[in-house]
Amino acid sequence: MSAFVVAVSRKAEHGIAKPNVDTIRLIAGEGVEGDAHSGAKVKHRSRVAQNPGQPNLRQLHLIHAELFDELARQGFAVAPGDMGENVTTRGIDLLALPERSELRLGDTARVRITGLRNPCMQLNGHAPGLMDAVLDRDDAGDLVRKAGVMAIVLAGGEVKAGDPVTVHIPDEATNALKPV
User: Fold this and answer.
1) Which of 2, 13, 37, 121 is 20 to 30 A from 81 via CA?
2) Which residues form the MOSC domain (predicted)?
3) How many folded domains does the chain comprise?
4) pLDDT band, residue 179 (cuts 50/70/90)
């Protein structure tokens, strides 16, 4: 099965859920045009409080739709955009990608994966227990974060539902993803 975009979402104000839209425009070095997290410098409120001058490694949030399938089996009703992601994909294991992996979204947009999304308590505002449901433990007892990945925009362009997603893993991209 080929990987593709299921839905795209954006929201001008901070808050967890982002409404789906027909198209988003990615801007190189900035993120999603019109989204609260767009910008070269960090926009996530807790990170701004720590250091507003740090680079924005969270310009774009991607989640795999397979997570929603898993959550539905646990009794959660979660749809694209509900967890604050900008791009919902299907057919690619985003969490297994190494740092610095690149994705082409649609015809021209290109993003670099910077790390894992660290889920926050705001998810429980959508559904009680949702934050715990997107956390797990591996066989070694280490915490597994399943709430998607974060990326920076390398090349801009329009992205919409149905667009193909292709993966490029550079030779130097060997480190497992960590929270950003």
Assistant:
1) 2
2) 18-168
3) 1
4) very high
Q: Which amino acid is at 51?
A: N
Whether residue 165 contacts residue 103, with contact meaning beta carbons closer than 8 Å, is answered with yes
Provide the token pair at 67.
């997570």
- Degrees (nearest 5) of the Cα angle 87, 107, 165? 45
Please report whether residue 176 resides in a domain. Answer: no
Nearest CA among 21, 41, 170, 16 for reference residue 99: 170
Residue 67 CB neighbours (<10 A): 21
Q: pTM for the whole thing?
A: 0.96
Listed residue (105, 96, 74) closest to 6, CA to CA? 105
Q: Is residue 149 part of a domain?
A: yes
Structural domain includes residue 178: no
What CA–CA distance (Å, rounded) separates 72 from 48? 34
Q: What CATH code is carried by the domain that includes residue 73?
A: 2.40.33.20
Residue 110 forms beta bridges with which residues?
104, 155
